[in-house]
Amino acid sequence: MASVAQTMESQHFILGPEVDQFEAEVARFIGASTAVGCASGSDALSLALMAWNLQAGDEVITTPFTFVATAGSIARLGAKPVFVDIDPDTYNLDVSQIDAAISPRTRAIMPVHLFGLSAELKPILETASRRGLAVIEDAAQAIGARYDGQMVGNLGTVGCFSFFPSKNLGGAGDGGMVTTNEESIAGRLRLLRVHGSSKKYYYEVLGVNSRLDALQAAILRVKLKYLPQWTEARREHADYYRALFADKELENEVRLPIEPPNCFHVYNQFTLRVQKRDQLREYLTANGIPTEVYYPYPLHLQPAFAYLGCRSGQYPRAEAASREVVALPIYPELTHEQQELVVETVARFYRGQ
């Protein structure tokens, strides 16, 4: 609140010193040379593609099992999202299918680090380097996650982050950030987010209005200091869930999230694959336990993407995940007693009690 009051007193609400300092702090945290704030995680993706000079008719390879902003950022620029099915254990892109999806029009690959777990980046980066493609990391749910010891958002061409309130680092409203180690891209990002203008009323390119509010930056600067301990709390909760489920003998009904040995998962969500998903949710809700489904419909079957001509069954793993996943509470303040209640209630459901 002291930071909010100080910002209010300054009367500097758009960009400015608070945003500059927050950008520098996020860049240091991620290990990138530059971070550029913007109005939302969705805009971070769009600005990244604009900075890469994506054109109408270009193609970008991505996943159908993600939030709409991933593919929406591609489509709104007139480019084509080209979907690749997911790995059934990590829910991230199945890297073995990427080469077959590349065409002469492909300009970029947009992996999503879903639920706080890094995509399998090494083969993606190798393919991109060989083919001259950008790698736009959708790290909206994964700030602090690591792959082979490196922070996500610092391995591809750019990293895109969201500060929506439900994220591990959440603001008091919308906010986003793009990280990069290429100064030419950083310069374009700074230009594009302010209508394409580097000096007042002079427009070098057609940009957008996507600036990070100083109030959000002030709040997020305070919260960033606590992010490591919040991440450890989420990871501890994930370990405790695993221990609790191990005692319930529910292997046939419940599959727990995995953490590959080369990854550091930050658990924006703790996502199960379960039998009788919708009935389980109703039972948990009736017993006072909140759940959520991320995501109930894969993007290739959404009306907004019907023009792509995808069909049901085309990406069977994404479709199966949409029918079976459910996220349990995993926020940092969760108590062991609450987790015990969650797992016992899940077990009661499958015991038919």
The CATH homologous superfamily name of the largest domain equals Type I PLP-dependent aspartate aminotransferase-like (Major domain)
Report mean pLDDT, rounded to a whole number.
97
Assign an overall shape.
globular
Task: Report, as a whole number of angstroms, the end-to-end distance.
Answer: 47 Å
Rg: 21 Å
Summarize the structure.
This protein is an alpha/beta fold. It is built from twelve helices and 15 strands.
Helix-strand layout with pairing:
Elements: H1 2-10, H2 17-30, E1 34-38, H3 41-51, E2 59-62, H4 68-75, E3 80-83, H5 98-101, E4 106-109, H6 121-131, E5 134-138, E6 146-147, E7 150-151, E8 158-162, E9 176-180, H7 183-192, E10 197-199, E11 202-203, H8 214-224, H9 227-246, E12 254-255, E13 263-264, E14 270-274, H10 277-286, H11 316-324, E15 325-328, H12 336-351
Parallel strand pairs: 2-3, 2-4, 4-5, 5-8
Antiparallel strand pairs: 1-9, 6-7, 6-13, 8-9, 10-11, 12-14, 14-15
Helix pairs in contact: 1-8, 2-8, 3-4, 3-7, 9-12
Tell me what the structure shows:
With 353 residues, the chain is an alpha/beta fold. The chain has 2 domains: 2-224, Type I PLP-dependent aspartate aminotransferase-like (Major domain) (Aspartate Aminotransferase, domain 2, 3-Layer(aba) Sandwich), CATH 3.40.640; 227-351, Aspartate Aminotransferase, domain 1, CATH 3.90.1150. Helix content is 38%, strand content 15%. The chain has 12 helices and 15 strands. The protein has a 7-stranded mixed sheet, with helices on both faces. The protein has a 3-stranded antiparallel sheet with strand order 7-6-13, with no helix packed on it. A hairpin with a 2-residue loop joins strand 10 (197-199) and strand 11 (202-203). The chain is globular, with a radius of gyration of 21 Å. The model has no long low-confidence stretch (mean pLDDT 97).
